[in-house]
Amino acid sequence: MVGAQFTPGRGDTAPLPRIPAEPPSRRAGGPLLKAAGLVAVAVVAGLVWWLVRGGSSDEAPPSAQSTAKEFQFVVSDGPVAATDCAANSYSQVKQFFTQHPCQRLSRALYTTSSGASRALVSVAVVTMSTPEDAQQLKKLADTDGTGNVNDLVRDGTAKIPGAPKLADGDYLSRVTGASVTIVLSAFFDGHADEATLQRISKEALDLAPGA
Q1: C-alpha distance from residue 149 to each of 2, 63, 107, 129 (Å)
Q2: Maximum CA pair distance of the chain?
Q3: Residue 138 within a domain
Q4: Which of 1, 4, 67, 130 has its CA 20 to 30 A from that of 211?
Q5: Cα–Cα distance between 97 and 91 in angstroms, integer?
Q6: pLDDT tens for each residue of 111-162
Q7: Mean of all residue pLDDT scores within the chain
Q8: Closest Cα partner for 175 from 144, 205, 209, 210?
């Protein structure tokens, strides 16, 4: 189907197409968070209040970046940088890297707490040659049973007593240009709280070690 045509008038230019941002993704079939929607509502409400108050050019409207973080992250190990992603991954993701070598890999581990429970969080940033390769990697890693980049506990780099198996915890990914950020999080001592882990993973996306 051919869309409506735009006929520029004198002094007009044709409008540029809008490119939607890529949202973070969990493993295929996982639940989606509603936090982003709540933040958007809060920002809109704040903007309306600012306009009602007669905000001037000297007073900037509120932004989503001013939202307070729920969790405090402490570096437990890393960041560890590498350029051979195939050597630091497994299963189909490893095979993907043999055909599409990455440019850089940075991995780190963090700990954070929710009440009396403590969680371990892995954040890996993979920089590919092109945005197209990054999209392919994200699609593959987002699918269950296809493997992943090794976290620092899995490959033996980090020695953390009682460390949980992160591959069995929460998964979240985000692509930005040619880079893919992959987050894994799990509670120590077998504690289970999926909703809290999802919020932890979402905030951990912004840690991006060595990006």
Answers
A1: 42, 34, 9, 17
A2: 70
A3: yes
A4: 67
A5: 10
A6: 999 999 999 999 999 999 999 999 999 999 999 999 999 999 999 999 999 9
A7: 79
A8: 205
Does residue 122 belong to any structural domain of this protein? yes
Does 110 map to a domain? yes
Task: State how many domains the chain has.
Answer: 1
Report pLDDT digits (tens) over 35-80: 444 444 444 444 444 444 444 334 333 333 346 789 999 999 999 9
Q: What angle do CA 180, 181, 185 make, to 5 degrees?
A: 145
β-strands 89-90, 148-149: how paired? Answer: antiparallel
Asked whether the whole model's pTM tops 0.85, one would answer no
Cα 98 to Cα 119: distance, rounded to the nearest angstrom = 32
Domain span including residue 195:
78-205
